[in-house]
Write a structure and sequence with these properties.
The longest helix is centred in the middle third of the chain and has 11 residues. The protein is globular and about 35 Å long. The chain is of the alpha+beta class and about 50 residues long. It has one domain. Strand 1 and strand 2 form a beta hairpin. Strands 2-1-3 form a three-stranded antiparallel sheet, with helices on one face. It is about 20% helix and about 30% strand. The chain has one helix and three strands; from the N terminus they run ββαβ.
Length: about 50
Protein backbone atom coordinates (compact mmCIF):
# COMPACT_ATOMS: atom_id res chain seq x y z
CA UNK A 1 0.00 0.00 0.00
CA UNK A 2 1.22 3.47 -0.85
CA UNK A 3 1.06 6.52 1.33
CA UNK A 4 -2.20 8.41 1.34
CA UNK A 5 -0.23 11.44 2.56
CA UNK A 6 -3.04 13.53 3.96
CA UNK A 7 -5.47 13.35 1.07
CA UNK A 8 -9.03 14.34 1.98
CA UNK A 9 -7.98 15.50 5.42
CA UNK A 10 -9.01 18.65 7.15
CA UNK A 11 -6.42 21.36 7.36
CA UNK A 12 -6.09 24.02 10.02
CA UNK A 13 -5.01 27.63 10.01
CA UNK A 14 -4.48 30.19 12.73
CA UNK A 15 -6.15 33.57 12.54
CA UNK A 16 -5.53 36.55 14.78
CA UNK A 17 -8.11 38.86 16.33
CA UNK A 18 -8.25 40.95 13.14
CA UNK A 19 -9.12 37.87 11.09
CA UNK A 20 -5.74 37.71 9.35
CA UNK A 21 -4.15 34.32 8.84
CA UNK A 22 -0.90 34.18 10.77
CA UNK A 23 -0.06 30.49 10.28
CA UNK A 24 -1.10 27.65 8.03
CA UNK A 25 -2.68 25.89 6.48
CA UNK A 26 -1.29 22.74 8.10
CA UNK A 27 -2.70 19.22 8.36
CA UNK A 28 -1.63 19.06 12.01
CA UNK A 29 -4.16 20.33 14.51
CA UNK A 30 -1.70 20.19 17.42
CA UNK A 31 0.77 22.37 15.52
CA UNK A 32 -1.98 24.87 14.71
CA UNK A 33 -3.03 24.96 18.37
CA UNK A 34 0.55 25.60 19.49
CA UNK A 35 0.91 28.44 16.98
CA UNK A 36 -2.44 29.86 18.06
CA UNK A 37 -1.13 30.11 21.62
CA UNK A 38 2.04 31.79 20.40
CA UNK A 39 0.15 34.34 18.28
CA UNK A 40 -2.84 34.73 20.62
CA UNK A 41 -5.04 33.59 17.75
CA UNK A 42 -7.67 30.98 17.10
CA UNK A 43 -7.58 27.79 15.08
CA UNK A 44 -10.11 27.20 12.33
CA UNK A 45 -10.61 24.32 9.96
CA UNK A 46 -10.19 24.93 6.25
CA UNK A 47 -11.35 22.54 3.54
CA UNK A 48 -8.56 20.88 1.61
CA UNK A 49 -8.61 21.69 -2.10
CA UNK A 50 -9.94 18.82 -4.17
CA UNK A 51 -7.36 17.54 -6.60
Amino acid sequence: MGCNCGKNKTQYEVINSQGTRVFGPTPYQTTAEAMAKRHSGTVREVPKDAG
